[in-house]
Amino acid sequence: MKIAISATGNDLCSTLDARFGRTSQFIIYDLDNDSYISVDNEQNLTSAQGAGIQSAQTIIKAEAEAVITGNVGPNAFRTLTAGNVDIYLGTGLTVQEAIDKFKNGTLQKASGNNVEGHWM
Amino acid sequence: MQISIASGKGGTGKTTIATNLAYFLKKQNKTVTLLDCDVEEPNCHLFLHPTWTSTEKSTSKIPLVNMSKCIKCGRCGDICHFGAIANIKDTVLVFPELCHGCGGCSIVCPTGAITESEKEIGDVQTGTADGLEIVQGLLKVGEPMSPPLIRSVKKYANTDDEFVIVDCPPGTSCPVIESLKNSDFILLITEPTPFGLNDLKLAVDVVNELKIPFAVGINRSTIGDSTVWDYCKEQNIPIILEIPHDRHIARAYSEGILLLKALPQYEEKFTGILEHLQEVLPS
Hints:
The complex is a heterodimer of chains A (about 120) and B (about 280). Chain A is of the alpha/beta class and about 120 residues long. Chain A has helices spanning about 40-45, 50-60, 75-80, 95-105; strands spanning about 1-5, 25-30, 35-40, 65-70, 85-90, 110. Chain A has a single domain, classed as 2-Layer Sandwich (Nucleotidyltransferase, domain 5), CATH 3.30.420. In chain A, α3 (about 75-80) links the parallel β4 and β5. Chain B has 2 domains: about 1-55 and about 130-280, 3-Layer(aba) Sandwich (Rossmann fold), CATH 3.40.50; about 60-120, Alpha-Beta Plaits, CATH 3.30.70.
């Protein structure tokens, strides 16, 4: 199973990025063999609108079944849900710590968006 | 001919110039329609006090997907530049607040799975003041997408009129592009401050991209510094209007009185615009 983590850098020492749509990177971590790749999200950083939807599509394409991030808006939530991606919320963690917490089952699972869209 | 009044920066005096130019041209016995395309905050009416004669609902089209016909080819999502339609695994998601209503998704759909439904986005009001035809768009509160409403407002322009004056929204994004479309000439209003210059440069980039003839007007020309003049000289951009920082103008403005009604001595400034237009544009 693969999980995606919004991150400020491209390795496991990076900090978890609280932003989902406008995170600079996603770490796609494969729990089956403890390997990972990073996916650049730079293009979305500058998009005017719809960043959450685009980011969701990026991690769905990367075949992640769960995502760990800080905040998700309504459109990101809708898109991730349609793609059967579970959402876990974390804050003030490194990517490695977030993965460890996910493995221990100590991360909170989101049942809806926890922030509003940016144009509201 | 369509003359659009735009600016990068907000609050530079677009509406002051648009309303007074329209009023001035009407006084010269031209036929004029004024389109207030700043649909999030239309304010030409504050100075022209029109009598509204009609109000019509404006709608935008949003896609409606029939999943039983969808073959999940992904073309609808690929063509949408705004991410308003997304192909996710076994379903297609539509985000109406991101949709510009272009209809591209329904055109590329090979199976006819996408039809369009109407979404109400605001009102288009038409009226008259001092013989001027005025049209304004009024975006519905909470509706983030103004270009489709701006398109509706522009449809009301009387093509037989000698002049269609467009008061644009501020900035350089989609609503501005929509307002500027089909302009014969653009007047960019700025103020001689670092902010004014910065945003003027952005607006000039947009207008150059659109390849429409343009000039600059400087409002509150007696404040700030000389960098806007220096920039225009360097870029060979004509400055066809300069209005000084004048307490009397501010007073008339705050009372909702048209500049040229309160201070007719400023009429010669607008004569300058008309002369420039006659020089650069085929009649």
